[in-house]
Fold each of these.
Amino acid sequence: MTDIIARNAGQLGAIVRRIRKSRGLTQERLGALMGARQATVSGIEDGATMTRLGTLMDALSALDLELVVRPRSKADMREIEDLF
């Protein structure tokens, strides 16, 4: 899988949703894998800004993903927005 860039909560939520669906998981099943309710998964996917970092990390772990932090690239923001 290639790197996918997220620059805000909404974009990160869309990435989680896309990967969850590509793996054939429901929100309920992902919630069970991460020890959370379906509503929590829905909030992450909707880009809820009040989501705890630990909860987000649980979701990424359940999807076998990792978070990478690096300096922001100079890519045109429209190119990134087009991904979503």
Amino acid sequence: MTLPDSAPRADHTEASEVVLKALAEGGSLILVGIKAANRWRFRLVRDESTLADLPSEEDRQGVEFRSESEWVDSWQEALNLLHKYPWHRLHALQVHPHFRREIWAAVQNRAARERREDNWVRW
């Protein structure tokens, strides 16, 4: 699945694919990937642009509503990007079929460490 033209791309010739899209009230985390030469590269996009509707300019001042990580070259590095956030507690909207097992194992592992098995049902 290719992201729309406004979505992040590694460059103008390679299309990113959504690996995981997790939603929360006010934002999303999207792990995107590019497969080239039988290797995947990953980037995390954090979008909290809905928070731009905060009541006052003062509340919005200095807040970064959208960010993209650098590209990483391994699944473990991609998980490290995700683990900066409570992604496993969010609502999974989209999971790339190739990464279903890896993502499910990461959710179980993270939830088990937090002893929060209730998250498994949502995933």
Amino acid sequence: METRTYNVYTFQEASDKLKEKILEKYRQSKYEHGFVYASEYIDSLNAFVKSTGIQLRDYCLGSGASYTGIQWSYESYNWDFDVDSISGLKLRTWLLNNWVCNWEKGKYYHSNSTNSKGLYRWRRSKIQKTIECPFTGCCYDHDLIQPILDFIKKPNNHTTLRCIIDECFDNFITAYNEDEECQYSDDAIIETIYMNEYMFKENGEID
């Protein structure tokens, strides 16, 4: 039996050349395993189209996709109007009555009283409403609905429902791409390395 010894380094101890190897190899392993939060994003997307009645025809997301986009239609849903036919206050009212009302919950707040453990009692208001990640509980829900909420705050006669839905999906894709890009950035990789206290061989692989 032959015994061999080799040196291992923390990221701080590594030379600049070794650091480049470490980042390159670690980033490649990230690509191979895929975007960490991809499934959560897709869960939000599927829940959004289910809530709105939109038909999701096809989608491709992320840096590995041949193209990035979301194809949708509404033919399968029994809407009593065309998506290009209403705008302004009429569209705002329709959104409030058909979509937003299903996403709202009573505002969550605590009373001045406490329970037996000294903790504040929390309850939801029956008057004040709020929207808190209504589909999955993840922040990606808001990437989809934010253009709708923005339109409700400031409706106009130039924006149709089709425009808003397209903007919802564009906003979602942008958030997905930025989040994925962040995952593969040097800063994110180095933070993970420090957090896990990894040691590295001279070829840049984790020991």
